[in-house]
Amino acid sequence: MMKKKIKFEDTELYTWNERDRASIELRDKKTQETLVEWWDQEVEEVFEDGFLDPRNLHESVYDYYEDHIEER
Asked: For the chain, which residues make up each domain, given as ranges?
């Protein structure tokens, strides 16, 4: 059975940071299911690798989800 595609407007972004800890998480608004998340060093790596745009973070996280996670 094919999963229904989640639209950008059906997602919400959660970010958290404190001293040397950081988290970025994209969730389905309806189910609160985590669609993609990064912690600590992974957060730094996805920015360094150019996957995320800090000026447009929610959209760039969603784009990453569509390109790398959704089809699994």
From this structure: 8-69
Nearest-angstrom CA–CA distance, 17 and 4: 32
Model pTM score: 0.87
d(CA 13, CA 16): 10
Q: Which contiguous run of DSSP H or E holds residue 43? A: helix 41-48
- Residues 2, 33, 11, 71, CA torsion sign: negative
| CA–centroid distance for 34 within its chain | 9
Q: Looking at residue 10, what is its pLDDT?
A: 98
**How many whole angstroms separate alpha carbon 18 and alpha carbon 32?**
23
